[in-house]
Design brief:
About 30% of the residues lie in helices and about 15% in strands. It is an alpha/beta fold and about 325 residues long. The structure holds thiamine diphosphate, iron/sulfur cluster and magnesium ion.
Length: about 325
């Protein structure tokens, strides 16, 4: 039995064993009922569906309960600092384009302190998948109001209720330039797994707003059930390839969430837009041999950027 069986697992339940379960910390220590378990399970399932092995994947996380994902998932990993998973993920992809890069963090991490990185990584269409665990709260630091907390939400930092309108993550993502945008929920594991497969396969910046309930610090929050899959429901017909239709659907979805209706699914997909790496390769600015490979060549002659500049021009 896992040494961590008292936390997050029921007595007698065995730890799931697969190639994406690390030997060092096989059992996640999130609280019982935490939505983060759903993300871990869906990610393991998606990687297995795609036939990936741990040494083909790099998972970069921010700080928060969500940031622990990289400890519980077997692959290359980097547990970075609050709001900074995306710059690390971008550098990784540029240095080693062969790696499947996934970045993950919380709503505070990605839509608050790391909002600037989110906007520009989407704008530049870096080829990676970004999972935002959206529990509408700062979980790790014990329940403060986050950028996605609904207006009026009471917490230790906003005891009279938040006076702020929450951010609209899907609309923000589309406006910034993400080429794949979806929302799923931990309570919807099959859809989550399918969406993750699509997002990882997409060549460009894929953003998934992943609704994850926090039963410990956000007791007022919905558990995100019942949910509606917009692709499975005739009331929601729109073209995920049409920016205007996608934008209208996203706005409706974000408004509905705070009225208690949970809409999930694929919202936008532009399969034609070249990724940042493709753009750079087409202009000859990306080296033929990736930086990660050159690093191990002992006699490689390194160029400095100032060597490329003509000072008299
Ligand atoms: C620069 C910096 N500021 C603040 C913190 C403190 N801090 C750690 S996690 C966190 C918020 C976590 O909330 P979220 O990103 O939503 O993740 P969750 O725990 O809900 O998964 C904060 C404010 C920090 N670690 N670093
Ligand atoms: S505090 Fe909330 S988000 Fe963090 S592990 Fe517990 S239930 Fe999950
Ligand atoms: Mg959070």
């Amino acid at each position: 039995m896992s040494a961590f069986s008292a936390i997050g697992e029921h007595e007698g339940q065995t730890t799931e064993q697969d190639e994406f379960t690390p030997g060092i910390e096989p059992q996640a220590t999130w609280c019982p009922g935490c939505g983060d378990f759903g993300v871990l399970k869906a990610l393991k399932g998606a990687m297995s569906d795609l036939g990936k092995s741990p040494d083909e994947v790099m998972l970069v996380t921010g700080i928060g309960c969500s940031g622990k994902l990289s400890s519980y998932f077997e692959s290359y990993g980097f547990h970075s600092i609050h709001g900074r998973s995306l710059p690390v993920a971008r550098a990784t992809k540029l240095a080693n384009p062969g790696l499947e890069v996934v970045a993950a963090g919380g709503d505070g991490d990605g839509y608050g302190i790391g909002g600037n990185h989110f906007m520009h990584t989407a704008r530049e269409n870096h080829d990676m998948t970004y999972i935002v665990f959206n529990n509408e709260i700062f979980g790790l630091t014990k329940g403060q109001t986050s950028p996605t907390s609904p207006k009026g939400h009471k917490s230790k930092t906003q005891p009279h209720g938040s006076a702020k309108d929450p951010v609209r993550p899907l609309s923000m993502s589309l406006a910034a330039g993400s080429s794949y945008v979806a929302r799923t929920a931990a309570v919807n594991p099959n859809q989550a797994r399918e969406i993750l497969v699509e997002a990882i396969e997409h060549d460009g910046f894929s953003h998934i707003d992943f609704l994850t309930q926090c039963p410990t610090w956000n007791k007022d929050a919905k558990q995100y059930v019942p949910y509606i899959d917009v692709q499975q429901n005739d009331d929601y017909e729109f073209d995920t390839g049409d920016r205007r239709e996608a934008a209208d659907m996203m706005y409706e979805t974000e408004t509905a969430l705070h009225e208690g209706k949970v809409l999930t699914g694929r919202f936008y997909h532009d399969a034609d837009r070249p990724s940042y790496g493709q753009e750079k390769r087409s202009t000859g600015e990306m080296p033929e041999t990736p930086l990660a490979e050159r690093y191990f060549e002992e006699d490689y002659e390194w160029e400095r950027s100032y060597d490329l500049l003509d000072p008299h021009r």
